[in-house]
User: Fold these one by one.
Assistant:
Number 1:
Amino acid sequence: MTPRLAITGWGAVSPAGWGAEALVSAVRAGQPLPAEEMVRAPGAPTPLVRRVPKPAAPHSFSRDPRMRRTSPIATFAVASALEALGPERVAGIKDGTLRVGVIFSVFNGCVNFSRRFFSEVLADPRTASPLIFPETVFNAPASHLSSVLGSREVNYTLVGDSAQFLASLHTGADWLLAGGLDGVLVVTSEEIDWMSAEACALTDRLLVVSEGAAAVYLEPVETGGVTLAALPAPVRFTPRLPRAAAAAKLRSLLPAVPGAVLCDGLAGAAKSDRIESAAWADFTGPRFSARAILGEGLAAGAGWQCVLAAALVASGAAPAAVVSALGGNEHATGCVLGADAPAADDVAACERAAREGFALLDAAEALDRD
Amino acid sequence: MAALPPAPARHRVVITGAGLITSMGNGWGENVDGFREGRLAFREVTLFETAGQRVHRAGEVALPERLPATRLGRRRAARVDRATALVIHAAAEAAAQAGWDRLDLSAEEIPVVLGTSAGAMALGEAYYEQAVATPERHTGQVRRIEHYQIQTQALLAAESIGVAGPVTVITNACASGANAIGHAFEQIRSGRAARAFCGGYDALCRLVFAGFDSLQALSTGLPRPFDAHRDGLAIGEGAGVFLLESLEAAQERGAAILGEVTGYGAATDLHHLTQPHPQGDAALLSMTRACAMAGVGPGEIDYLNSHGTGTPLNDVAEAQAIRRWCEAAGEDPARLCVSSTKASIGHLLGGAGAVEAVICLMALRGGWLPPTTTVREMDPAVCFDLVRTPRDKDVRTVLTNSFGFGGANATLIMRRWPA
């Protein structure tokens, strides 16, 4: 049996609620969730936002000492990660039988506490809170997550644009193929703050800013899970390969799979969506636009797309799902979930992978190492 | 299914370019002179207001007014912020040293892996101040938004030397720079890339300076790593860059090889968000992992560049980890040469691991050890040979530690390349 990389767990927090099921239901219903206008000060931009609803009951992890002072970004991250892992894997991590690396992806980060701390510094640095400052550091949510899980394995916080989640998935696949880890948890989380919401409004007034988290658990498996069938290296924007060309290149790198559903990154804002819409204009299959329903979740957005894709394939709603994420200024990323990985002797597929990505080729090489 | 078996190392990874800028100076030469002597490079902070804070000094860089020659257009170069300028200076030096400045690299997918902790935080501060003072005024805000984003800094740095591959920015607090070099090293070692542009940077900013002061982590005098009466660290700024290549790729183009990266280890300390495990558990794990990859033990390390911040908790935990690491291998820690270059330039946060890796390369190539000259009375936890005065030594293998907030621990091992 060929070892392959598969997503075997996923979780999400979004304006649709706590849990992947709420996300999938909301997106499949096709109606954008209600948004509210954020008004801070006269003359300031007034972005539309969609917030995560309050949880129905306190979280099991809320009494963990690490989680007492955290801002929403860490709470969202931990909730989605625990859902993706499930209690058995969490127990395995805690007792040391499961070695799990953590990759936390973020675009905006903990702006909430950074703003609060900086306002205290401007008012009087002598009274600025030493309790808040450590939470402003980009990797604080990832640190809390590893602590809650009890994992001493490698933990990276990767910052990028709104397509970063799939680039992080690529790094996670790299880690697994290097050997030594049983699985990799790829997580993303964002929170709403007036600074970042207004910043989004300044760049595109029609964007509805939102918050939440997504997590997937990636592992080498022989059977089960949702196959990570193709994962091209991120296509970076450069002066010679501007955003539109990068979007088209990404499309060309993602194999066409009959019957596949497209989980695109369209946010329902014409200016922001123009290039990705053009890149996928001739796609004739069914498509879902999670960001248009849930809001522009920044780094979390691509995570939601990935969770949606995995859930659709796992439920049998589609044989495969294509995920496309076009970041604002860094890269285009994407993947195909669900289509069967090629056999190790599928030379054409391996050659293609060698040129364009790595997932297929390295699955075959991993087999050789066995 | 269990983890896949460890992938074999397919390539040796060599350093063909190195660059740095610190408060000690701009470039290899000025920094060699300063670190070899153990000179101190601190001054009053001029970049922002420090009134009302306990500390007013830092390792502030005398940043040249102009960027070095780059492949950025004039308009883009004019918009570069301080943090990006630091990494561009280091990258330009490394590119010239490696001869990359004479190559057309645009067709090659060379990965870019940079580490930072705060990026262009000063732009975020300016954005906030304008948004609060004059909410209706948006002039300049969109540019601040764009350049505040960390990936923008990495993209500009990459474009400045004509590197077009995928960008990865690691923000693992004060281990970021070491993680970035380690990640790039793994890309080449595994055969996923033939070359990589990697390093770390951070620029001084008010939020972070005040943050460390609020924690009372800043020394009110000089940082004295491993001194019994140390009272904290000094903040610094700067950038360090490596250009890495597989040995085959470097030899194929006849590049001069400066050194070899042989090991990388990372681990997560779960003890506390800002405090290390008192016995240095995760530090021990990251050193052990790096040594296993490099195939060396403590007895073969000729110099250890410690994380050595000068804070009471860090230094004793790192000393414990070093002791345990040596004893586990049956080695006498007293024979191990250790120093902290943070005593000279301060703690460069996300840039620290990369700058200290470049300093280690200097030591490998020059045959000297950078001293920690601010120590007056050694902490009783010091079990190793703490280098306190300039010293010449035949250095073949070095290890550098970087530990950060959130428990991010990283270790790099490098080897001298025969002349």
Note: The first strand of chain B starts at residue 13 and ends at 22.
Number 2:
Amino acid sequence: MMTYPVEGVGLGLRREQLTELRQQDPMQINFMELAPENWLKMGGRRKKELHYFCERYSMLAHGLSLSIGSPLLLDLEFLAEIKKFLEQNNITYYSEHLSYCSDSTGQLYDLLPIPFTEEAVHYVAGRIRQVQDFLERRIAMENASYYAAPGQEMTEVDFINAVLSEADCDLLLDVNNVYVNSINHQYDAEKFLQNLPEERIAYIHIAGHYQEKEDLLIDTHGVNVIDPVWNLLRKTYQLYGVIPTLLERDNNVPALSESLLELDIIHQLQNVEVGRG
Amino acid sequence: MGKLSDIQNAFTARIRDPQHVIKPVDIADDRMQVYKELLFNNIEEALNIVFPICKHILGSATWLLLVRKFMSSHAASKPLYTQISEEFVEFLLAAKNSKMPAYLSELTHYE
């Protein structure tokens, strides 16, 4: 049975909402999450602000730039900065994307699809182990959104299972990504959920996305969560019980009150599941 | 370097330089287009925020060509999104002797 790193409902920490967060100190937020890359180089006022939130909330770190699937060697200098940042801010849990953002030439600064191949399973799992050893902690990898599957040899869910098992790491389950990928690659989202390793799910991400075409969704985190994704969250709770869940919003960040309405929905879904159990 | 990095580099080479690199055969046109736009816009946005004067002086078309040149030829080593501007300054410094106006690298340095 998984011991979750946090409990209840969380909100991603966004600069646009810092003032409102301090003024309102909302009850709905049980934990928060930040991207270490956005705070690493900050000093002065920003650093103080960060300190306030890390003291006030259970804080998780969700990285962007590790590039776990890259053909380049792991950037240990960068990883050392991450390690120091986590220690300095008392952040107990770190996750990253099952993805890559640099090729043999260099950085590309956005998430790219790791080929679902046997070779990639061993390569990526080895690198996750290396990161866990370096950070001296267990980490979680998130199922990433992808729009193409270069060199595909196996299904996404088989790939994820094989990597997590060989690396012996946790899963950050992004329910919006499951939905987006199920539309973009025409698979059954519920079946995908059923095939995940329950004992490795550390927490859940939920977010909104943009519909470019009927069969092409883009994972923008720029709008509210849509009903089919709420339904998928409900199904996840029905399958695995209540799992701590965090709302992500990275673009068009709204007034805090609007995010809180979405957190209320997560609380409701969790309460329904507790009542059902 | 095995087959894995070949698959990856073939995919990213097309993203970096879609005019000169052919698309991997197993990727649909519209999906390749998604990545091409996502990555280019992401980098262009980062540079636009830091170098608005440079963009204004060059004009939109030349600016976009310059960003494309940066993407297709520069080996960026700094991992953070906020460091794209530093990489761009390095790229312009290295390109000083090419056809680029000489004042560009000084201007971006100032900005």
Note: The two ends of chain A are 17 Å apart (CA to CA).
